[in-house]
Amino acid sequence: xxxxxxPPRPARYSGFGLLRRxxxxxxxxxxxxxxxxxxxxxxxxxxxxxxxxxxxYYLAAHYxxxxxxxxxxxxxxxxxxxxxxxxxxxxxxxxxxxxxxxRSVRLYESLSADLNFNVxxxxxxxxxxxxSDSALRTMRWRxxxxxxxxxxxxxxGPAEIAALVPHLDVSDHPRFPILGGLWHxxxxxxxxxxxxxxxxxxxxxxxxxxxxxxxxxxxxVSDGRVRGVRTNRGHTAAPVVVSCTAxxxxxxxxxxxxxxxxxxxxxxxxxxxxxxPFLDTVVVSGTLHVYVSQSDRGELVFGxxxxxxxxxxxxxxxxxxxxxxxxxxxxxxxxxxxxxLRQWAGLCDMTPDFSPIMGRTPVEGFYVDVGxxxxxxxxxxxxxxxxxxxxxxxxxxxxxxxxxxxRFTDGRLVGExxxxxxxx
Length: 424
What we know:
The chain is of the alpha/beta class.
C-alpha cells in the first residue's frame, strides 16, 4: 500500500462556537458520518473498539491508506472498550510485554494533542500490593525488568504506601498484611469513551468509513487468501481483513477457517456512589484479586479477576459483589458505609500464556489483533500503530513480533500471568 498525503485533523470547536450553540440551542454536527458500504475497500477492520479504530486511524494518518472500513455489530465502543475500568500501565513482567505497553503509555500521553480531543488521561500512579514474601519477590522481579526497559517502577515499603494511600490498613492486624508494593508512577486512568470518540472522529475526518450496526456474517476465503466479507448490510470485497474483536474473536476467526487457542471468560466490575475525592492512586491486590480507583466524578471503581468459568454472559452476579466488597473492606475498612450503585461485565479472550495474538494468519490477507484478556484497552494505541505499520509495509514490527500465532506450536510463549493476576 503506497502512502499518500496526511489526512486533515478534526475540526476544533472554538469557545465562541460553544457559547453560540449553548445559547441558541442549535444542533451539533455529528462527530462522524454515516456511509453506505462500498463494493470494495482496501482494508476491512472487524471491530469498532479502540483497537479497530486505532488501526484505521494510524493507517490513514501515518500511511495515507483511507479506503478503509470499520465494521461494528453494535455501536462504536460498545464492546470491550465500553466495559472496562480504563486503567493504563506498563509495569508488566516480560521484556516484550513491558516494551509494548510502555509504547502504549507514551502514545496515550500525547493522544489528546494528536487527536485534537481531550481523552482525560490522569497519570496518578499505579500501586500493586504484596501480602506475602513470595509476592514481594515477584514485585522486585517486575521492578528490575521494568527498570531495564526504562520504565519507572520500584518496590516501596508500608510507610511509603501509607503516605500514598492513607486509607489503606498497613498495620499487622489484617488477615493479609501489606508487606510492600510495586509503585508505578506513569500508570493511571483514562476516559474510555473519550478515547473511542477521539479515534473515531479522527479516522472519519481522514476518510475512513465507520459502519455501526453492521454484523459480519461470513468471511470469503478462496485459494488460501481472503477475498472479502459478508454482512447484514451486504457484501464487500477486500484483499485485507483484520479482526480486532474482543469476546468474539474465535467466532470471527472461525469464519475464515483460522482456529485460535482462546477461551472466553466474563470479567465483572462495579462502581459506588460518588464520594469526596480521597484516592489519588490506582490500588491493586493480586492476592485478594481486587483493584480500586476513584473516577473524576468521585465514584469508586472496583474490579477483580475473571470469572472462574468460560461464558459469554455480560450480566453481573451477587457472588462477585459480595466477594469484591469483602476484599476491598479488608484493604480499606472505612469504605463500609459506601453503597454500590451498579455493576457490569465484559468478555475477555484468554490465551494460554496471557499474551495477545497479533499479525498474520495461515490465510493470506487475514490478520488478527485479538486475545487481549483483561488488558486490551491499555494496549489500544500501540496495537493500532503496529498493526497499521504491518498492513501498510508488509513487515511485522519488532514490537509485536513475539505475539505471532504459531508461538503456541513453536513453544515460544510470552508468559504474562505473573503481571496479570488481576483483571485490569
